[in-house]
Amino acid sequence: MDKEMSEVDREFIGLVEQYQRLAFSVCYKITQNYFDAEDMTQETFLAVYKALPEFDGVNPGGFITRVATNKCLDYLKRAGRREIPMEDDILHQNDSSSPPPEENILQAEIDNELKDLCSSLKPPYDYVAREYYCNGRTAAEIASRSDKKVKTIQTQIRRARQMLQKKWKAINKNGGRSDGTFNR
């Protein structure tokens, strides 16, 4: 049977054996789907076979990678056009774009309560807690603003967290959150 195969066929079989894993890896990385990657790998080698007579033989791995990439990108474009959004999907997207008003009000109340709790701490913990929990600053940012070492600020944040947990538990008999923690 080897004698019946043309030189192009033998060259193609060698390319498939050598580069099929590379082609599959490229396809899987792009499509993020095992079965689509298998299909695109087959499409890749079909295109490579058709282009083999014109291929100059320089850098076959790069050539196959480029063909695989283009095949996958074309596939994703076609797949995107084929998808028709369902009414439920559109409504769900609109719902998820902004939280419900109750959630906004509840979050504002929690933020105010947190700010009040942070302000009730003794210095320097009040400042550190407000900056860290309410204003979202990092320990390094707080340290640079207050001319203190980062380690000092980290220690103050840890101590402020412990104090806030105690205050939170005292205010809410059940300990605040169900797990009893008070984290950012």
How would you state the average pLDDT, rounded? 83
> Mind telling me the C-alpha Rg?
30 Å
Describe the largest sheet: none
Q: Poorly predicted ranges (pLDDT <50, ≥5 residues)? A: 175-184
N-to-C terminal Cα separation, in Å?
Answer: 70 Å
- DSSP strand tally: 0
How many individual helices? 8
Instruction: Report the portion of residues in β strands.
Output: under 5%
Give the SSE order as H and E letters.
HHHHHHHH
Description:
The protein has helices at residues 7-31, 34-51, 60-82, 87-97, 101-119, 125-134, 139-146, 150-171. The chain is mainly alpha-helical. The longest helix has 25 residues, at 7-31. The termini are far apart.
